[in-house]
Design goal:
CATH superfamily: Aldolase class I
Number of domains: 1
Distance between the termini: 15 Å
Number of strands: 8
Number of helices: 12
Order of helices and strands: HHHEHEHEHEHEHEHEHEHH
CATH class: Alpha Beta
Bound molecules: 5-bromo-uridine-5'-monophosphate
CATH topology: TIM Barrel
CATH architecture: Alpha-Beta Barrel
Radius of gyration: 17 Å
Strand content: 5-15%
Length: 264
């Protein structure tokens, strides 16, 4: 099936080239799974990506949790991900003024040089997005920002009004490819989708096939429900890397997400 047949209005309405890249890759792999690769070592990351690469579409990292980080070692993570055609998504959650976000895209981790996508809070206003975009432009790369419109964690402070204001920021910037939504709540995802329209993606953490609750306030919903409610990508961490057989787990999440998309 062609991506426009599978994704329908989302394919036509999302203008960002990286949104199309993701939707195409999802069709090739029949998977909406974004691996949250929350491991502290480069060897562990490379090993995990090798096991699950065929079943996931993007790699979400927290580069600052890697112990004994060096750019030379990090390149092996990037190369392994690229060998599986994974988009690189750094969940940096930028939140400062524009000029500082721009410089934070460089620095030791040099996120601008390898990440295709990053997350940002909207709390500081719209210029954080422009700062991030300026950093990519400075190294002649194209990237996309996912704004946190909701969160999956218990007791978070992202009120409905905050979500609405975040959507205003996102809908007026060509650099905002979409939003993070609360994967643990289909009702919240439906609400977010109704407000976001078809022209932006919604990616959702807080999904798990077997658990209802994670550690330290993480909440979970069913990944199939999240997709049926309007999520375009399920972000899965412990459900895959905490499993005894990460390859088989990734395949199960891929099947669930793909079947739910076809239903939708
Ligand atoms: P888990 O192991 O599937 O619970 O991991 C979830 C990942 O998604 C983890 O990397 C978090 O940083 C990330 N996350 C989240 O869980 N909830 C949120 O609201 C946001 C990100 Br934003």
């Amino acid at each position: 099936m062609q991506p426009y047949e599978v994704w329908g209005e989302r394919w036509r309405a999302c203008a960002h080239p990286l949104a199309h890249q993701f939707m195409e890759a999802a069709c090739e792999k029949q998977s909406l799974v974004v691996l949250a690769a929350d491991l502290p070592s480069v060897d562990g990351l490379v090993n995990l990506i090798r096991q699950v690469g065929p079943h996931v579409t993007a790699l979400k990292t927290h580069v600052d949790m890697v112990e004994e980080y060096s750019m030379r070692e990090w390149r092996s993570v990037i190369a392994t991900a690229q060998s599986h055609n994974l988009m690189l998504f750094e969940d940096r959650k930028f939140a400062d003024i524009g000029r500082i976000a721009q410089t934070q895209m460089g620095g030791m981790y040099d996120i601008r040089s390898w990440a295709d996508l990053v997350t940002a809070h909207s709390v500081s206003g719209p210029d954080v997005v422009d700062g991030i975009a300026a950093a990519w432009e400075g190294v002649q790369r194209i990237g996309g920002v996912l704004l946190l419109a909701q969160m999956s964690s218990r007791g978070n402070l992202l009120s409905d009004d905050y979500t609405d204001r975040t959507l205003e920021v996102g809908s007026s910037s060509p650099h905002v490819i979409g939003y993070i939504g609360n994967g643990s709540s289909p009702v919240e995802i439906e609400g977010l989708r109704a407000k976001a329209g078809e022209g932006r993606m919604i990616w959702t953490p807080g999904v798990n096939l077997s658990a209802a609750e994670g550690v330290l306030g993480q909440r979970y919903g069913h990944p199939g429900d999240a997709v049926r409610a309007g999520s375009d990508a399920i972000i899965v961490g412990s459900g895959i890397h905490g499993s005894e057989d990460p390859g088989a787990a990734a395949r199960a999440y891929a099947e669930t997400s793909w079947n739910a998309l076809l239903e939708r």
